[in-house]
Amino acid sequence: MLQQTQVSRVIPKYRAFLKRFPTVHALARATPSDVLRAWQGLGYNSRALRFHELAKRVSADNGQFPRTREELRALPGIGPYTAGAMMIFAYDTPDLSVDVNVRRVLARTLLPATASVDASAIDALALTMICASGQPHDWHSALMDLGATVCTARNPACAACPLRTACINKGPRPEELAAIKKTQSIPFVGSNRWWRGRILRAILKRPAKEDALVRAVLERSPSAREEDAFRIALNGLLTDRIAARERDHIVPVS
């Protein structure tokens, strides 16, 4: 849930999700549409369907999750970052799991402003440090929290940072400032992600024909540009098997 989603949005959804599906077996028994309903509001709904497939796989194996990175990677939806995070947080084993917060803290603290941020170099630094720490879970948690609460992207609290005496940059790096400006210039409302979320919300409430569906999303008749955006988003949901055609209606995957 935390992948590309803010903690403040995740916490209430996480608690409600665990209440609805308290075990991996309960999640495995659910229908895809049930899982999508519980996931509503988090976005990137393909994550929910992959998580459901993962639950069915693990449930069939007596509910036991693998304990090696390679076996975890074989599960649906488990990429390098998630596999590393599970090794670190579930098994307290040194591994690589570099998110945006960890990358930002390491780049600001250790790399000069003129140096390019090479992902492989950051990964090497992170892995060396977590192995040397002797406490993978605690070390990684501390680094993630530092990036999330002190060494933030836009307004870092440098004066309160415990690494301030060692930090090379003391604030956002030039390429970070450029990325922030670019992100701020892209509106969310009307984007493909916005359309996908609104379409899914509508069909989870009530399946509808395509023409009625676009009006239900907008609560009015669409413009030609809005119709095009709607079709692109709908085709994406159908391709990703989050939605389906049932006779002449659009329905959530079943």
Comma- or semicolon-separated keywords:
Arc Repressor Mutant, subunit A, 3% strand, Endonuclease Iii, domain 2, 254 residues, two-stranded antiparallel ribbon, 59% helix, mainly alpha, single chain, 2 strands, Endonuclease III, domain 1
**Which stretches are poorly predicted, pLDDT < 50 over at least 5 residues?**
none
**Sheet of most strands:** 2 strands, antiparallel
Architecture of the largest domain in CATH?
Orthogonal Bundle
> The CATH topology of the largest domain, please?
Endonuclease Iii, domain 2
Radius of gyration: 21 Å
On the 0-100 scale, what is the average pLDDT? 92
Domains, number: 3
CATH class of the largest domain: Mainly Alpha
Q: How would you describe the shape? A: globular
Strand content: under 5%
How many beta strands in the DSSP annotation? 2
Protein topology:
Layout: H1 7-20, H2 24-29, H3 32-39, H4 46-60, H5 69-73, H6 80-91, H7 100-110, H8 119-133, H9 136-149, H10 174-184, H11 192-205, H12 210-218, H13 224-239, E1 243-246, E2 249-252
Antiparallel strand pairs: 1-2
Helix pairs in contact: 6-9, 7-8, 7-9, 11-12, 11-13
